[in-house]
Design brief:
Distance between the termini of chain B: 146 Å
Largest sheet of chain A: none
Radius of gyration of chain A: 27 Å
Number of strands of chain B: 26
Strand order of the largest sheet of chain B: 2-1-12-11-10-7-8
Distance between the termini of chain A: 49 Å
Number of strands of chain A: 0
Oligomer: heterodimer
Strand content of chain B: 15-25%
Helix content of chain B: 10-25%
Shape of chain B: rod-shaped
Structural class of chain A: mainly alpha
Number of helices of chain B: 18
Number of domains of chain A: 2
Order of helices and strands of chain A: HHHHHHHHHHH
Number of helices of chain A: 11
Largest sheet of chain B: 7 strands, mixed
Mean pLDDT of chain B: 83
């Protein structure tokens, strides 16, 4: 994961060139909307509606092309960074243009469905920009130079020691350790990963019992469990940050594809029943 | 008989290490504790997990020491006996112990670790595990499922249903409700489940002829050629090309749907604002050179003076539209003075007061309403008729037989001539000898009601001719003329609508006194046009967007796009007086 500086990079690209273009386009759209005399009330079927509709549909297709474009990294004024910068700001301008296209008329129909999907895509995109700006710093701070493989290996090493150390323990205590060892590192569902809360953590339960005291084998196992807990927490924070960085794509990308379908249905249907 | 424990292990590079150890006892122990004969360091096992006891030469018994059992050939058991000749596989946690018999008769127990024991780290797909890919459904699958759902429900279903529906009105289209951009207006609400009633052909905008299948009596605003010419949009000295305004199967400007926009909500259909009118009428002279209409764009600031439609040649009932600014004079064929009839101190007032309640007159003389009665629509006035509105004073009685008065037939000159020349007058209605002191020129009163003088004059003479002469019972109001060699009068045409292209609602103005707009009390001649000028209307009515006006007024307050009887009703509303 690249650092925050790169992400500032695409937002500030070329001294906010695309922010300016997006702002001016939105402003122009608003001014024309206010000046245009659309009878009896603004709607997608007026000349203004067709104009903003065409621009909006074109924008949506172009914005979606980032998914293809990003696979080829090229430098220059059409570098991936420039493209991403334009993607973010024009995506926000789309919010203005498409909203004016609707004339603020909504209903339970395929047209509003397309609009709602677009809102979802834009909202998830905004979330993505925000987390890409904020989270990478926290992610690298949490990692402390460890790679993901090292995190797994650290826990595996503790687990090996734990398994040996627990051999002399009676059944009940051995079961606690066994449960802790048996806890899959990546078994947690989406909610646990996003919140970072694991109320049924077996390592935590084992620690609760072993910390009540004891010596010899007990003390060794207790110490190992505490070390396991520390590593586990780092790993879970790492997973949480990674999930937060990634989860929006599960909304942004499938919804974009769904939006293309809804947009197709919207355009064909309005002309089918013209 | 001994037990031969054969431990099989693998080094990191996969090399197999086999160690044999013999135990010459009948009973051995298995467990996690290092003191067991078979030490299996697996936390899933008890410190002392099971015992193996020899039964005879070929049989051993396995029994769990605690509550946890073991598996024999996959089956979970607390105790079992095994024939060492046929053998078996015991399972303890992550370990397998194969039971068999060596050639020297020793019982062979082959101990082998089977894969990782619970809790041991398995090979981890690092890339996948650290992302959500491991726990979320595939993005591709989500995307494709939603694409297919959306296209199927909102595109394929309605289109297929539209194409395959039964012909005729019973054929329904399924799923097109999702295409409806907004509720239909109240008038079209019944069509809400029949999109195809208006959207007849795919990819073709709603056509005027479709509207006309129901709206058969919607009239054109003007001749189609003129309309088309006026609607060309001026652009850079020429016109915008047609394909831009009519292209792509769009109906284009002037189509019904251009003004009557549907799907705007379940309410009365939104009336087009003045803008739609001003599009053409704002610069009609430029668009339509031959038009006699002046440009109009705002009632308060840019609207021509009213042009009254008045009778100029009564004999032929010829009308002319003349601006009120030109001080037009009308010739309706009737002589009448509003001033004479409305003067509160004049003879008419006293006569009306005398007749009084019998005819609905008040004590203060004639009022407007005594002759101008409200019409059935409440918007305008009923046409004036002689018997109802004049005859109370202008009696047509000419002879008295007993207690009955014989009357002339109004509107029938030949009958009048016949009646008066019949020579069978019993008691001709006569002179002021009966009642005196209430004369007016050429009129006499009998029993409180006024009569004309139908006695033959000293030199005899034709009563009919006398009636038609100036001052006679007919000639007092009518102009005599010869029609095909016979006596007659010039036909009377009383205009009920001077402004036929506008809709003026008298009912809406009922709180205004008549004389505020109509200067009737000063009019001595029926030639006067008693209409207010536009300046007077503007004291209340200004343009649609003039919010300071008492009544901001758009075009459609007075005008209608489609001529209808209510608005443009010459044929229905202009009624000649001749036959009344």
């Amino acid at each position: 994961m690249a650092g925050g500086a790169m992400h500032e990079g695409f937002l500030r690209h070329a001294r906010f060139r695309w922010l300016k273009i997006a702002l001016w386009s939105s402003l122009a759209a608003v001014v024309v909307y206010l000046l245009a005399d659309i009878r009896p009330q603004p709607n997608g079927g007026s000349w203004y509606g067709y104009l903003t509709g065409t621009i909006g549909a074109g924008l949506i297709v172009w914005l979606a092309l980032l998914g293809i474009r990003k696979r080829a990294i090229t430098p220059g004024s059409w570098s991936l960074k420039a493209w991403t910068s334009a993607h973010v700001y024009l995506g926000l301008a789309l919010l203005v243009i498409a909203t004016l296209h609707t004339g603020f008329r909504f209903g339970w129909n395929v047209h509003t469905l397309a609009y709602a999907l677009m809102l979802l895509v834009i909202a998830s995109g905004v979330y993505g920009v925000v987390v890409y700006t904020i989270l990478p710093t926290a992610l690298s701070a949490n990692r402390e130079e460890m790679t993901q493989g090292q995190m797994i290996e650290a826990i595996a090493a503790i687990d090996r020691q734990l398994r040996d150390a627990a051999q002399p323990l009676p059944r009940a205590e051995a079961d606690l350790v066994l449960a802790a060892l048996g806890e899959g590192l990546f078994a947690a569902g989406l909610r646990q990963r996003l919140t970072g809360r694991y109320p049924d953590c077996a390592t935590g339960h084992a620690i609760a019992v072993f910390s009540q005291g004891g010596d010899g084998d007990f003390a060794r196992v207790a110490a190992l469990l505490a070390r396991r807990q520390t590593q586990l927490e780092r790993m879970r924070r790492h997973l949480r940050l990674k999930s937060l960085l990634e989860v929006w794509l599960y909304v942004h990308i499938p919804t974009t594809i769904a939006l293309m379908a809804a947009l197709t249905a919207h355009i064909i249907s309005v002309f089918y029943y013209w | 008989m001994a037990y031969r424990l054969r431990q099989i292990e693998f080094t990191a590079d996969g090399r197999r290490i086999v160690r044999d150890r013999d135990i010459a006892r009948d009973a051995i122990t298995i467990g996690r504790d290092a003191g067991n004969d078979i030490h299996l360091p697996d936390l899933a096992l008890d410190p002392l997990h099971a015992r193996i006891t020899r039964r005879d030469e070929h049989h051993i018994a396995v029994a769990a020491a605690g509550t946890l059992g073991f598996t024999l050939d996959g089956a979970n058991l607390p105790a079992a006996t095994i024939d060492t000749r046929s053998g078996g596989e015991l399972g303890f946690g992550g370990y397998r112990i194969a039971v068999g018999q060596e050639e020297d008769g020793a019982t062979l127990l082959t101990i082998q670790r089977q894969g990782p024991s619970p809790g041991e780290t398995e090979a981890i797909d690092e890339k996948r595990s650290f992302t959500l890919a491991g726990i979320m459904p595939s993005r591709r699958v989500i995307a494709w499922v939603s694409v297919l759902l959306i296209l199927a429900l909102f595109l394929a279903l309605p289109i297929a249903s539209h194409l395959l529906r039964a012909p005729g009105p019973q054929g329904r289209v399924i799923g097109d409700a999702s295409w409806n951009p907004g509720p239909l207006s109240l008038a079209h609400h019944g069509l809400k489940d029949h999109c195809e009633a208006c959207h007849v052909k795919a990819f073709v905008a709603v056509r005027d002829e479709t509207c006309r299948t129901c709206h058969k009596d919607a009239h054109d605003h003007a001749p189609p050629g003129q309309l088309a010419e006026a609607r060309l949009v001026p652009f850079l000295g020429g016109h915008l090309p047609n394909w831009l305004t009519h292209g792509f199967s769009k109906s284009g400007t002037g189509a019904c749907a251009d003004c009557h926009v549907e799907h705007q909500g379940q309410k009365a259909m939104v009336a087009p604002g003045s803008g739609a009118c001003v599009d053409c009428h704002g610069d009609l002279k430029a668009r339509l050179g031959q038009s006699r209409l002046e440009d109009a764009s705002d009632f308060g600031t840019r609207h021509p003076q009213f042009r009254a439609r008045i009778v100029t040649i009564p004999e032929t009932r010829t009308f002319s539209r003349i601006s009120l600014d030109a001080h037009p004079r009308e010739n309706s064929g009737l002589a009448f003075s509003h001033q004479l009839h409305l003067d509160p101190r004049g003879g008419v007032a006293r006569m009306a007061a005398t007749i009084g309640a019998a005819k609905g007159y008040g004590s203060r003389g004639l009022q407007c309403k005594d002759c101008h009665h409200r019409g059935e629509d409440g918007v305008r006035f009923a046409p004036i008729t002689m018997p109802r509105d004049c005859e109370a004073c202008h009696s047509l009685a000419y002879d008295q037989v007993g207690g009955t008065f014989r009357q002339l037939h109004h509107g029938d000159v030949a009958q009048m001539e016949a009646d008066l020349s019949a020579g069978d007058l019993h008691h001709p209605v006569v002179s002021g000898a009966v009642v005196s002191g209430r004369n007016r020129p050429g009129a006499f009163g009998v029993g409180g009601v006024y009569y004309s003088d139908f006695t033959a004059g000293p030199g005899g003479g034709d009563l009919a001719q006398r009636a038609l002469s100036k001052g006679g019972i007919c000639g007092e109001c009518h102009t005599p003329r010869m029609v095909n060699g016979r006596l007659g009068v010039v036909p009377v045409t009383l205009v009920s609508r001077y402004l036929p292209d506008g809709l003026f609602d008298h009912y809406a103005h009922r709180q205004t006194r008549c004389e505020e707009c109509h200067a009737a009390q000063h009019s001595t001649s029926s030639a006067d046009i008693l209409l207010p000028r536009i300046q007077q209307c503007r004291s209340c009515h200004l343009g649609e967007d003039e919010h300071k006006a008492k009544v901001p007024s758009g075009c459609v307050l007075c005008h209608a796009y489609h001529p209808s009887p209510l608005v443009r009703g010459r044929a229905l509303w202009d009624v000649g007086m001749g036959a009344r």
